[in-house]
Amino acid sequence: MDRTDTGRAGMNRKTTILDLISRKLAPFMLLFGLYVLTYGHASPGGGFQGGVVIASGVILLFVAQGVEAAERLFPFATLSRVETMAFLAFIGAGLAGIAAGIGFLGNPMVLVEVSAAPRAGMVLLLNLVIGIEVGSGVSLICLRLFREE
Amino acid sequence: MALTLVWTIRFLVVSIVVSMVRVVIGPTVADRMIGLNLVAAQTLALLVLISVSMDRTILLDVALVYDIFGFVGLLVMTRYFSGRKGEL
Amino acid sequence: MVEALLVLMLISSVFALLIRDMLAAVLLLGVFSMLSCLVFFLLSAPDVALTEAAVGTGVGTVILIWIVYRTERRDRT
Amino acid sequence: MKSGRLTAAAEILVLLLTAFFLYQGLRGDHGEESEIRRHIIENGSSETGALNLVTSIYLGYRAFDTLGETMVLLLAVSGGLFLLKPGSSGNGHDERGEDGYGQD
Amino acid sequence: MVWVLLSPMLGATAALFGSLFERFRGTACVISTISLAVPAVLLALLTGPVMEGEVLQHSLGGWSPPWGINLVMDGLAWVSASLTTLIAVAVALFALDSGKYGARFFFFLLMMAVGMYGVALTGDLFTMFVCFEIIAVSVYVLVAWEGTGTGLAASLKYLILSTTGIMIFLFGVFLIYRDLGVLSISGVSEALRAAGGVRNTPVMHLALASLCVGIGVRTAFIPFHTWLPEAHAYAPHPISAFLSGAMIKISFFAMVRIVLEFGGDYLMDLLMWIGAFTALAAVLSALSQTDVKRLLAYHSISQLGYILAVFGAGSSLALTASFLHALNHALFKSLLFLTVGAAVSFTGERNIYRIHGLGSRMPVVAAAFFVGALSISGIPPFNGYASKAFITMGMKGSGAYPLLWATSFLTMASFIKLGRIFLPFSRSGAEYDRKERPPGILETSVVAVLALMCLGTGVFGSQVAGFMHSMLYGTELVTAPRLFTAGSLLKTLPMIALGILAWRMVLTGPGRSLSGRVRALAPQLRTVLIFFFAGLLAFAAVAY
Amino acid sequence: MNLRARWNLVRFFITFISLFSGWLLFTWSLDTGSLVAGVVSCIAVSLVTWSIFVDETEAGRRAHLPRPHYFLLFLGVLVFNMYVASFKVLWQIVRGNINPSMVHFRTHLRTDIARVVLTSSITLTPGTITVDLNEDHLVVHWLDAQTTHSRYAGKLIKGIYEKLLRRVWL
Amino acid sequence: MNIGTVIFFVLGAVFNIMGNLGVIIFPDAYTRLQASSTCSTTSVLSFLIGCMFLVGLGPMLGRLLVITIFFFVTSPISAHIIARFAWQNGMVAWRRNFRMTGGRGRADG
Amino acid sequence: MTWILIGAILMAGLWGVVNRPNMIKKVMALSIANSAVILMFVYHGSLSGDTAPIEGNGGTMVDPLPQALMLTAIVVGVCVMSMALVLVYRLHRKYGTLDMREVEGKAWKLRD
């Protein structure tokens, strides 16, 4: 089905240094992406930025280890499904506003207490959903772009 | 103390100007990359200094994201560019 | 300060459009977006700065590198 | 040759005039104080529950723009994947024997 | 009201699911087509209130307009949304039956429809920008759908032009926000009115010019039209129909809304002249084309010129005529694109001189084609005649009318030229290596229904115009003209004669060489962009 | 539960704990909400990446956990050397008297992480940049080369780091 | 505390000037990389440490620490990958045959 | 002064779109011009305050609305850019050139 990733990109053979750094650093990047997502309502950042940070973790992985290795961790089909699901969830979150009677994409759970960090309700939910969609989408297209044909 | 910060920030802006020279004139791509790296490092310092001078913790996130993306961008650049020998 | 950075951005964008070597153009575009990120930060828009850092320096550079990698390094036009 | 020079002259002329147009647009003072800004700064975070006012606009007041943006992203991603697919060139038969853009 | 937007969105998601999961493949297309029925039903339900002049508003998320986004359903929005629905349903059914297009095609199609509904309904400038981009990105993909080099190049050309245009649109939004501090359209018009009459600051004029240019690229009138022939000609046939039938109209309606609400009366003359000139120039180049779909695409530009010119005439009757012609053009142009598309995919040939005798192979389609051709040429009793009669009334006494009159017989000439492909007899008796099956039952019925609608809107032209007028203004059309009087019917006779004369002239030697020279006029993108900025400057100069 | 499953579980927990300590360091708060979000996202990330964060062959405590006192000592030495040798480069820049050359030598370190730290510290130490690391073979660009002999050069460049690193990570 | 900040800032500034100077005047990419990687890394680290002195214990310190660690890890790696890029593309290191001129270096030998 | 500089960047982008024949350069120029428009919005927003629009310590906040709008604009810009580059890639595979003039000449050679 797939030809192996040993074409022109394989010319740069794997090096120890990049391999190790990517393995140790990429999880932290993913975690940082999730941080940017979950704190999007209280600090700079939000869905899109967090998603792109997550995608940058994936990019780091495939740049250092080849697209194949990254695809084992983040399979193509799963990513595309997750992306679509997240989009659907976004619309669903909007429909929740309709169900609560305040209109599409309304905010049915504004809390009085806004100082506690991850309790901003709707905004947090939307951030998460957008972040997942953007993360999977951007990493999907980057993986696809850099795959040898 | 605020004065020190302000002057340091100004100094860094000027030094970014100087580093840009290498980016613009660099004869080879590697030279330009060095310039890019230098600009990125100084911009990181600048971001950190500005956030410290504003005393807002949350602004430091920007610096970290910036650092991450500078690194990843450079990595992709070097990784996917091995042209013919001698063509740099 | 913002003006100085804007001048730098102008220089880097003009050179990015003029230069023959596509990789150098991508690099200059990367510098452009780094500087614009800095400008956004100075204009107290951390969100925009974050997005610009993520998009301009990150994804944008990656995609541009991809296209140069797949097509031609030299701008022969 | 001659037409090339003509084009270049026209280009320079047009761009200079556009620059003048831009200058006319950007000249002068910056309008009135925005009422939106006042309202959002006063009760943006209590209405949407986000401390970051940009987020409160982005996902509260103007969440529909964000939805549109997400749609643009989705379109760009799936369109890019579609156009990159090796089998997509030629006779317009798009999905033949593969499921989704996962496995091509 | 929000369901008008939501339903195609959900349908698009269903289509995307269908392209991802094997199991839903068949049902997804059907579901997505059905999801277009919901807006139709909703719009039908809303007809009554809107006709009484009620303006329905829906604040998205409960945030009221100055800081939130609201959807506005007034007559204009109703007309645009129904136009979109009409064409979208026809196109979706056609594509569903032709069987060539998978679930992802429907995803892009429906997303485009969502963008159009958004443009039609939104009351906010920035949301309009986003919706324009939704349309644009789906169009890029759909134009490049076949993967041929021409399609890709057309898509890229459209991308560059429209992105430049939308950037200028964004600049206009910026100027407005800077000057007035509001983004919603009603807010802007209120702010302008609050300043006593029309607020005549130069910045507002420039902003309006920028907005018009940004939309003008999508609307494709003359300095900005160059993307259209390629993009329409090399897209898949249903998409050509959709683009030509609905998309440029939606952009035009958005422009109408902006010009009317922002007090852009001083732009009217410019628009009228541009429109008339567009109509004439485009029909001239249409007459010289040999590629069937390019010919139709140039006719789209030309008919859009009509619409624009009569809008520029400014009276309320003129606006009604303009909208009526937009509706009619949507009907007959999508009909023409679908029928010609069926012919092209049946024969695998695009040259007008190499397709013969399809009339005997697909009689219904051929009949529908002739209905469309007669409509566009303005022959009674089809709808083109009706709207052209209204245009004549609307443009009475204005200087640009002779151009339009010239355009109408040239249109006829070019359709005499095009009509030969569907004539039932074939001169050379060419056999085609049947690339595709002949159009299926659903496709045929779609074109038949469209043809019947052309006929219906033609026969009941004044009633339709009255309906349109009451939609737009909430009042009855005062001077309801009679269409089928002997005098006006007689007026078409010299036009027919002139059309045939023009057709014969094209077939002569000098005509051929001239048309070849016109056809070879393929401006490069650089030239095109220079024209683009020249158009921008023209708008700015008039505004200033 | 066989050995492999247990090792996988251990790998997962190592990942989780590292990530969570990073989270704590970054957020610097002990709110319930923050902790919950941290735990959830750390679990999510570690579920995806445990297999690459800890390589399968990296069994052995010393492969990951440095000996703390030696590690601190190493860091101190590194930072000190950085500053000292930055002045050296500074002096070279001012004088403009340089003699660059490429030298090749080998390292005796065995784990990957130690090698990578070695190369990084060589790069940070002014006057030298690691150009390539291939198994245990290092290519170093030396700004002020005193010798090109492999072993002496290695001794001069690696200096104290290798000795310390052998204590830190084995 | 203030004194530490000032000292580190001054150190950083000095290194920064020298790093920039080195990048401008050194003859080829490798040597420029030496200047950039060492001097500018040291200078940015100095700035960061100075900031740490400035802010004291608190949430800001945690983030500064994370940024410092990240920069400390990635900066030598960036230098390494640039050098490796040049090396793999066949750039030959400048040898000392002539005294350095200004700006544009020559890769001979 | 700042306005003039931003306008100059915008003009540089537009000039690139018009003048550069290379398709990638055209796309880059579009991205630059887009950046300039974004800068305009953000600069205008920043004129009315001096701290970032995040609740915290005081000061007059800048206008948050242009920033929120520009987030959307940036994302849309990068989406369009990626689409454009994918198209450029396909065109290059088809015609083997990056020159827009050549591509147009080869693509729209009208068959008679």
Structure description:
The structure holds eight protein chains of eight kinds. Helix content of chain C is 82%, strand content 0%. Chain C has 77 residues and is an all-alpha fold. Chain C has one domain. Chain F has 170 residues and is mainly alpha-helical. Chain F folds into two domains: 54 residues, no CATH class; 101 residues, no CATH class. Chain F is 64% helix and 11% strand. In chain F, a hairpin with a 2-residue loop joins strand 2 and strand 3. In chain F, helix 1 packs across helix 2, helix 3 packs antiparallel against helix 5 and helix 4 packs across helix 5. The two termini of chain F are 30 Å apart. With 109 residues, chain G is an all-alpha fold. Chain G has three helices and no strands. In chain G, helix 1 packs antiparallel against helix 2 and helix 2 runs antiparallel to helix 3. Chain G is elongated. The C terminus of chain G is likely disordered. With 112 residues, chain H is mainly α. Chain H is elongated, with a radius of gyration of 19 Å. Chain H starts with a helix and ends in a 5-residue tail after the last helix. The chains are: A mainly alpha (149), B mainly alpha (88), C mainly alpha (77), D mainly alpha (104), E mainly alpha (544), F mainly alpha (170), G mainly alpha (109), H mainly alpha (112). Chains in contact: A-B, A-C, A-D, A-E, A-F, A-G, A-H, B-C, B-G, B-H, C-D, C-H, D-E, D-H, E-H, F-G. At the D-H interface, helix 1, helix 2, helix 3 and helix 4 of D face helix 1 and helix 3 of H.
Quote the distance from N terminus to C terminus of chain A.
11 Å
Mean pLDDT of chain F: 80
Shape call of chain F: elongated
Strands ordered across the widest β-sheet of chain F: 1-3-2
**Structural class determined from secondary elements of chain A:** mainly alpha
Primary descriptors:
heterooctamer, E: 544 residues, mainly alpha, two-stranded antiparallel sheet, 74% helix, F: 170 residues, 3-stranded antiparallel beta sheet, 5 helices, 3 strands, 64% helix
Helix-strand layout with pairing:
The complex is a heterooctamer.
Chain B: H1 2-25, H2 29-54, H3 60-79
Chain D: H1 2-26, H2 35-48, H3 53-61, H4 63-84
Helix pairs in contact in D: 2-3, 3-4
Chain G: H1 2-25, H2 29-55, H3 59-88
Short description:
The complex is a heterooctamer. With 170 residues, chain F is mainly alpha-helical.
